[in-house]
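Entry 14. Structure prediction run on the chain below.
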Amino acid sequence: MIIAIDGPAASGKGTIAKRLAAHYGLRHLDTGLLYRAVAKTVLDAGEAPDDAAAATGAAQTLDPTRYDEAVLKGPGVGEAASLVSAIPAVRAALVDFQRSFAAAAPGAVLDGRDIGTVICPDAEAKIFVTATPEVRAERRANEYRNAGKDIPLAEVLADIRQRDERDSNRSAAPLRQADDAVLLDTTHLNVEQAVAAAIEIVEAKRS
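Output returned:
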Protein backbone atom coordinates (compact mmCIF):
# COMPACT_ATOMS: atom_id res chain seq x y z
CA MET A 1 0.00 0.00 0.00
CA ILE A 2 1.18 3.50 -0.88
CA ILE A 3 -0.19 6.53 0.96
CA ALA A 4 0.49 9.98 -0.50
CA ILE A 5 0.43 12.95 1.85
CA ASP A 6 0.75 16.43 0.36
CA GLY A 7 0.42 19.91 1.77
CA PRO A 8 2.12 23.22 2.50
CA ALA A 9 4.80 23.86 5.11
CA ALA A 10 3.90 23.17 8.76
CA SER A 11 0.45 21.82 7.92
CA GLY A 12 1.12 18.69 9.98
CA LYS A 13 1.66 16.37 7.04
CA GLY A 14 5.02 15.05 8.30
CA THR A 15 3.69 14.12 11.72
CA ILE A 16 0.60 12.51 10.19
CA ALA A 17 2.73 10.59 7.67
CA LYS A 18 5.02 9.20 10.38
CA ARG A 19 2.07 8.10 12.50
CA LEU A 20 0.30 6.48 9.53
CA ALA A 21 3.48 4.60 8.64
CA ALA A 22 3.74 3.27 12.19
CA HIS A 23 0.03 2.39 12.28
CA TYR A 24 0.11 0.39 9.04
CA GLY A 25 3.63 -1.02 9.33
CA LEU A 26 4.89 0.87 6.29
CA ARG A 27 8.11 2.77 5.62
CA HIS A 28 8.10 6.56 5.67
CA LEU A 29 9.84 9.10 3.46
CA ASP A 30 9.80 12.82 4.14
CA THR A 31 10.56 13.94 0.58
CA GLY A 32 11.02 17.51 1.75
CA LEU A 33 14.20 16.40 3.50
CA LEU A 34 15.62 15.33 0.13
CA TYR A 35 15.24 18.87 -1.18
CA ARG A 36 16.58 20.28 2.08
CA ALA A 37 19.63 18.00 1.75
CA VAL A 38 20.20 19.26 -1.79
CA ALA A 39 19.89 22.83 -0.54
CA LYS A 40 22.31 22.23 2.34
CA THR A 41 24.83 20.65 -0.04
CA VAL A 42 24.62 23.69 -2.30
CA LEU A 43 24.93 26.13 0.60
CA ASP A 44 27.89 24.24 2.08
CA ALA A 45 29.63 24.49 -1.30
CA GLY A 46 29.21 28.25 -1.21
CA GLU A 47 26.80 28.25 -4.15
CA ALA A 48 23.43 30.00 -4.49
CA PRO A 49 20.38 27.72 -4.04
CA ASP A 50 18.81 29.10 -7.22
CA ASP A 51 21.91 28.15 -9.25
CA ALA A 52 20.38 25.45 -11.45
CA ALA A 53 23.68 23.78 -12.36
CA ALA A 54 24.92 23.58 -8.77
CA ALA A 55 21.58 22.37 -7.41
CA THR A 56 21.15 19.76 -10.16
CA GLY A 57 24.65 18.43 -9.56
CA ALA A 58 23.93 18.15 -5.85
CA ALA A 59 20.67 16.32 -6.53
CA GLN A 60 22.28 13.84 -8.93
CA THR A 61 24.94 12.86 -6.37
CA LEU A 62 22.79 13.18 -3.26
CA ASP A 63 23.48 11.04 -0.20
CA PRO A 64 20.22 11.35 1.82
CA THR A 65 21.96 10.16 5.00
CA ARG A 66 24.68 12.81 4.92
CA TYR A 67 22.94 15.34 7.17
CA ASP A 68 21.17 15.12 10.50
CA GLU A 69 17.44 15.89 10.28
CA ALA A 70 17.73 18.66 12.90
CA VAL A 71 20.31 20.45 10.74
CA LEU A 72 18.11 20.15 7.66
CA LYS A 73 15.12 21.65 9.47
CA GLY A 74 16.84 24.96 10.21
CA PRO A 75 15.07 28.09 8.86
CA GLY A 76 17.77 29.03 6.34
CA VAL A 77 17.76 25.55 4.83
CA GLY A 78 13.99 25.59 4.44
CA GLU A 79 14.06 28.79 2.39
CA ALA A 80 16.90 27.42 0.24
CA ALA A 81 15.01 24.14 -0.24
CA SER A 82 12.03 26.05 -1.59
CA LEU A 83 14.34 27.60 -4.20
CA VAL A 84 16.08 24.38 -5.31
CA SER A 85 12.77 22.51 -5.48
CA ALA A 86 11.54 24.94 -8.13
CA ILE A 87 14.31 23.81 -10.50
CA PRO A 88 12.89 21.16 -12.93
CA ALA A 89 16.19 19.27 -13.29
CA VAL A 90 16.47 18.91 -9.50
CA ARG A 91 12.98 17.45 -9.28
CA ALA A 92 13.71 15.10 -12.19
CA ALA A 93 16.88 13.85 -10.47
CA LEU A 94 14.93 12.93 -7.32
CA VAL A 95 11.85 11.37 -8.94
CA ASP A 96 13.33 7.89 -9.43
CA PHE A 97 14.61 7.74 -5.86
CA GLN A 98 11.16 8.57 -4.49
CA ARG A 99 9.29 6.18 -6.77
CA SER A 100 11.68 3.31 -6.01
CA PHE A 101 11.23 3.92 -2.28
CA ALA A 102 7.45 3.87 -2.64
CA ALA A 103 7.40 0.72 -4.79
CA ALA A 104 9.43 -1.48 -2.43
CA ALA A 105 7.49 -3.92 -0.23
CA PRO A 106 5.48 -3.65 1.91
CA GLY A 107 4.71 -0.12 0.70
CA ALA A 108 5.25 3.33 2.10
CA VAL A 109 3.87 6.64 3.25
CA LEU A 110 5.44 9.59 1.43
CA ASP A 111 4.85 13.21 2.32
CA GLY A 112 5.74 16.24 0.26
CA ARG A 113 4.29 18.69 -2.25
CA ASP A 114 3.75 16.53 -5.36
CA ILE A 115 3.36 12.96 -4.12
CA GLY A 116 -0.25 12.44 -5.17
CA THR A 117 0.08 14.41 -8.40
CA VAL A 118 3.51 13.42 -9.75
CA ILE A 119 5.48 10.87 -7.70
CA CYS A 120 2.72 8.36 -6.87
CA PRO A 121 -0.37 9.29 -8.90
CA ASP A 122 -1.71 5.74 -8.43
CA ALA A 123 -1.37 5.72 -4.62
CA GLU A 124 -4.16 3.82 -2.88
CA ALA A 125 -4.86 6.73 -0.56
CA LYS A 126 -4.13 10.43 -1.05
CA ILE A 127 -4.54 13.10 1.60
CA PHE A 128 -3.99 16.84 1.18
CA VAL A 129 -3.20 18.32 4.59
CA THR A 130 -3.59 22.04 5.18
CA ALA A 131 -4.15 24.69 7.85
CA THR A 132 -4.32 28.48 7.88
CA PRO A 133 -0.99 30.30 7.34
CA GLU A 134 -1.28 31.85 10.81
CA VAL A 135 -1.63 28.48 12.56
CA ARG A 136 1.16 26.98 10.48
CA ALA A 137 3.43 29.89 11.35
CA GLU A 138 2.74 29.40 15.07
CA ARG A 139 3.61 25.71 14.77
CA ARG A 140 6.83 26.40 12.90
CA ALA A 141 7.84 29.16 15.35
CA ASN A 142 7.31 26.72 18.23
CA GLU A 143 9.49 24.14 16.45
CA TYR A 144 12.27 26.71 16.12
CA ARG A 145 11.86 27.74 19.76
CA ASN A 146 12.12 24.13 20.93
CA ALA A 147 15.31 23.84 18.88
CA GLY A 148 16.75 26.90 20.63
CA LYS A 149 16.07 29.37 17.82
CA ASP A 150 13.86 32.33 18.76
CA ILE A 151 12.54 33.69 15.46
CA PRO A 152 9.79 36.38 15.50
CA LEU A 153 6.37 35.05 14.54
CA ALA A 154 5.90 37.78 11.92
CA GLU A 155 9.11 36.68 10.20
CA VAL A 156 8.02 33.02 10.22
CA LEU A 157 4.59 33.94 8.84
CA ALA A 158 6.16 35.98 6.04
CA ASP A 159 8.38 33.02 5.15
CA ILE A 160 5.37 30.65 5.17
CA ARG A 161 3.43 32.92 2.83
CA GLN A 162 6.41 33.33 0.52
CA ARG A 163 6.96 29.58 0.34
CA ASP A 164 3.25 28.96 -0.32
CA GLU A 165 3.38 31.42 -3.21
CA ARG A 166 6.55 29.91 -4.68
CA ASP A 167 5.45 26.27 -4.22
CA SER A 168 2.01 26.86 -5.72
CA ASN A 169 3.19 28.83 -8.75
CA ARG A 170 6.39 27.08 -9.81
CA SER A 171 6.39 25.53 -13.28
CA ALA A 172 7.71 22.15 -12.10
CA ALA A 173 5.23 20.06 -10.10
CA PRO A 174 3.44 22.91 -8.30
CA LEU A 175 1.81 22.28 -4.95
CA ARG A 176 -1.84 21.41 -5.53
CA GLN A 177 -4.43 18.98 -4.27
CA ALA A 178 -4.76 15.91 -6.49
CA ASP A 179 -8.24 15.48 -7.95
CA ASP A 180 -8.73 12.25 -5.98
CA ALA A 181 -7.10 13.42 -2.74
CA VAL A 182 -9.14 14.00 0.41
CA LEU A 183 -8.70 17.40 2.06
CA LEU A 184 -7.73 17.32 5.75
CA ASP A 185 -7.74 20.75 7.42
CA THR A 186 -5.79 20.56 10.69
CA THR A 187 -6.30 24.19 11.73
CA HIS A 188 -8.45 23.25 14.72
CA LEU A 189 -7.16 19.70 15.30
CA ASN A 190 -4.52 18.47 17.73
CA VAL A 191 -2.11 15.74 16.66
CA GLU A 192 -4.27 12.84 17.88
CA GLN A 193 -7.39 14.20 16.17
CA ALA A 194 -5.53 14.81 12.92
CA VAL A 195 -4.03 11.30 12.90
CA ALA A 196 -7.42 9.74 13.68
CA ALA A 197 -8.98 11.68 10.80
CA ALA A 198 -6.20 10.54 8.46
CA ILE A 199 -6.69 6.89 9.45
CA GLU A 200 -10.42 7.27 8.75
CA ILE A 201 -9.62 8.59 5.27
CA VAL A 202 -7.26 5.68 4.53
CA GLU A 203 -9.72 3.10 5.82
CA ALA A 204 -12.49 4.58 3.68
CA LYS A 205 -10.23 4.30 0.61
CA ARG A 206 -9.28 0.70 1.46
CA SER A 207 -12.88 -0.39 1.84
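The domain at 2-206 is CATH 3.40.50.300 (Rossmann fold).
Filed with the rest of this week's runs.
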